[in-house]
Amino acid sequence: MSAYPESMQESMRNVETTRPRRAREEIPMLSLRERQELLQKYHPDYREGGRREIKAGVNKGQRVPNELADLFEGISVVRPGEMDLGHVKEEVDVLVIGGGGGGASAAVFAAGGGAKTLITTKLRFGDSNTLMAEGGIQAAVGKFDSPALHYLDTLGGGGFQNLPNLVQALVSDAPMILEWLARLGVMFDRKEDGDLLASFAGGQCRRRVHSAADYTGMEIMRVLRDEVYSQGIEILEFSPAVELILDEKRRCAGAVFVNLDTDEMFVIRAKTVILATGGIGRLHIQGFPTTNHYGATADGLVIADRAGAKIIFMDAIQFHPTGTAYPEQLLGLLVSEAFRGWSAQLVNGEGRRFIHELETRDITSSATIREVVERKNGVATPTGMHGVWLDTPLVEINKGKGTIHRIFPHLFHRFDTYGIDITKEPVLVYPTQHYQNGGILIDEYGETTVKNLFAAGEVSGGVHGRNRLGGNSLLDIFVFGRRAGIQAALRAKEAVVGRPSLDHVIEYEKELEKSGILRRHIKTPLLLPDYRYEKALGKVHQ
Amino acid sequence: MENQGKKFFSIYIFGKKYRVPEGLTVQKAMEFAGYQFIRSCGCRGGICGACLTEYRTPGSYQLKVVLACQALIEQEMQITQSPFVPMNRAAYHLGALKVQPGVLGRIYPEIYRCLQCNTCTRVCPMEIQVMEYIAHAIRGDIEKVATLSFQCILCGVCAAKCPAEISQPHVALLARRIYGRHILPFPEGLGQRISDIKAGRYDRVLERLTRLSTEELMKVYTFREQEPQESDQWVPKNPKFPED
Lengths: 542, 244
Description:
Helix content of chain B: 25-40%
Number of strands of chain A: 21
Structural class of chain A: alpha/beta
Shape of chain A: globular
Largest interface: A-B, 91 and 82 residues
Number of domains of chain B: 3
Distance between the termini of chain A: 26 Å
Strand content of chain A: 15-25%
CATH superfamily of the largest domain in chain A: FAD/NAD(P)-binding domain
Oligomer: heterodimer
Number of helices of chain B: 10
Number of domains of chain A: 2
Radius of gyration of chain A: 23 Å
Strand content of chain B: 5-15%
Order of helices and strands of chain B: EEHEEEHHHHHHHHH
Number of helices of chain A: 15
Distance between the termini of chain B: 65 Å
Largest sheet of chain B: 5 strands, mixed
CATH class of the largest domain in chain A: Alpha Beta
């Protein structure tokens, strides 16, 4: 018996009927020109009225999503006049803000460089988008692969706008990062001969994604967390940073924190600071659901912008083409791109394919939106959501019975909870907000435009251009986490810290006030999304 | 508006009664009741282990264990949450460990206290055969512990319920790390590629690519050969591209 309601079953029968024919069907990939046209017509980034200019600070004039601009125009939760910067809880060499993969790797390498290192994090150590990554991590290790092909794929995915020095660092470090993780004990998937198994993600000309089933991020995060414990690196949980502290020469000199349990505000002074606070999914850009962790509320971006760090490509948001569209309890949750890498097809309500499954995410999402919104070929759920089918049973047919259990145990379990057996029935999907492609501008050592302030991972920008490839974010966080950690530890040896101040916060608010748009009712950084009362019934907040 | 036609359930959150619409997950029901989580909320997708929840329903002796983000509410359920479980994590350095059959028992000798009551397996929200992997740990079969425990999200409920006071998630994590580092073979192709990179084999081509204009890059990009999805035996026509 099917777990899908009667209203969806006719279309599901179409999927079954066309399956044998589709399994052998070849459809071409789009030319660069066709890609551009599709994006401009259907990608949410190009939607009228979705973005507006930043009104103050060094990034004034850059366009960002409205939901982020709202935060930039709010007031700080820290009232500079009332905050005693002498209330110093601790002084360290390297202060790492964020306890996901970027922060943890930065801390390991900073501590390895001899620096007194502290990891601070808003929620639990490890709470992050890192642990939610399903598909895997890219590294060009195949016989017919090379860092140069990885470079080209990454640039092509990013609309050829990625910063070349950052991509060069990314692809050159990738195999070393894989080795580092394997030596920490990460159980990467293997072929029968013991060599690494690799699969495809969109936009890749070679199989290059290395996985640990569909637990890749979780497996890496729990190992890395254990390593941080082993090394005795100090960790401060449930304490988000709420402002950065600068000295009179506008060098970063620490941060103000709040203890979420007691509301106490306190200062940690540092010679160098590494921001690794992750992304913005929980702002629900343009009302989209998200794959992101509960804590993904743009905190790092907000405080870095006020401190004068330049940002780049923050108008480019990644919508993952295969977010769950049914059942509603799982709305927006990620269905790994690896399914398409393992030959699952995207199919409309009539059982026809409409895009090559290994196009990049921006393209595939745009094509799905076109299929549903313009061509009306989607499938409606009982609560009025729409989606297209991801034909998962094809994986069992093409790659052998048992493949889904072996490669996708988590996703099997998740749908099984709701009575859907994805080895036999397809999954309904629709684009979901997944990643901020841009972020704080860094150089190849992870340093921002503010001296002694570094950034790593999703909060940083430039390496992915306007659209990140699957498997490049787990890679990015470790490549730049490591680089930032090493560099911050080196810098800390010679850094001179002057008089601490929050003058930049006062100036930013004054500038907003002058333009008449200071939003006093919005306290920033946001820290926690608000899903209380009626909002809990909203369709986007799974 | 959205409440129209919805049936309401009574639920008891830490003993306090709330009325919430049916069909919600426990997590969303608590949010509907007015909770803004600091603890007991993480990925909201069943993989981070933050939202460990226990409940009973009227007329049943059973104490059920679920993840709040995954489980749907039930009429009259009484809910409590355990956002943190104290666990014993031993101090060790992975690189210095020797792979001997008794290594897990040496670091976590409490595994020998296992009473085989099977409570750990029964309460695991991930349906892991916890008692079985502890039995393998006692026998020294690291590979079995590693593979059987792979889906552990470290929520800690097994450790909270264990009458022998074992911290199963940490035993399993150690086994997996030993397995990944010391037992799985180090991948050959990876070592070779790293030596090549360190020897500067790709420096020239990467330097050249970073200097190309967008138009030139787009042209080079379109010359890539696409490895087919089906074949494992594929050989590109120009294996040197884009180096030459």
